[in-house]
Amino acid sequence: MKRKRILQLLITLISMHFSTYLSSQSIIVDDLLDDGEYLWISSSTGLIKYQKQNTATILYTEQDNGIPPVLTNLSKDEEGNIWGISPFHGIIKFNGKQCSFYNKDNSELRDNTVCNHLYIEKNGNIWAGLIGGTDLVQFDGTIWKRYNLTSTYIYAFLNTIYIDKDQTLWLGGFCEEKDVKDTWSLAKLPLSNITKGITPVNISSIGIKDIEIDKQGIFWIICENSFSLESYNPVNEESHIFKLPESDYPDVDSNNQIIPFSDIIIDKYNNKWLCTYKKIYKYDGSNFITYTHNKIDGSVHCLSSDSNGDIWIGTDSGLFKYIAAQDKIEPVELNINKNQFIIINKKHQM
């Protein structure tokens, strides 16, 4: 899958060299961040700031602003900076004009490719989980710290981080311990004493991909190799499994593989939205409802919901939008003109 993704990126970059106009369906959308009237779009061309109402669009590129393509885990801090993870450059911070990098040379990252998840506290602290172990890094704006949560694992990765109102740090991923009873996919530890040790949580899911928290504080979990949705109540520790019917599974991809869920979000109506190869699913509390569009050809990478209840959809085939009032998906044309963007970027104006 990684080789295929890199090939897609190279094809897109080559096409940019010969064309000044880039339609939405000619870019690969890797991540989305809802920002009120704006939508931040991480793509194979760079970072895009899209104004939803009048569709004005700014493209920030590596050439003009230092921003590498293919960012994931887009997040915004209290000062308005946009953060993300680059597969080759570590953690990036974008202030609206230029990009800063945190990597093995100036932070506690082991190398430039190991970061797997970002979480930003309200106080501005940045947390990141590292691939290939249970190392957790923290950045307060000045000082980096790294915590090795366990040294007895056989195989481990951290995919998601969450800090609740009680200052409990939750970790989702997978950690296979030498002692089988200590193996976990979901774990917690007190933020005030991280070195105290991890407490594994008993759930059915193995290898957590992502977690979303609803307004009632319920965890909604998707896994690396499953078409099930699991809910977990941290108060009474009850969990429930909701299985996608096999008849609704996605088609196999070009490698003859079935792609599991790649993202989960919760909309304003408390619906859970999930995505995979060519398909998007809405779980309304009782049933899974399947959505697709004939122009979506490839994987659906990411979802983002806005205050209207609409869902923005990032795919191998560009940007799409689920319009709640019409209960349908439509493609979104970004109207990216490269020549115009060279001028707009230097002024940083819509």
TrEMBL record:
This is Two component regulator propeller. Keywords: Signal. The keyword Membrane does not apply. Pfam families: Reg_prop. Residues 1-24 form the signal peptide. Coiled coil: none annotated. SUPFAM superfamilies: Calcium-dependent phosphotriesterase.
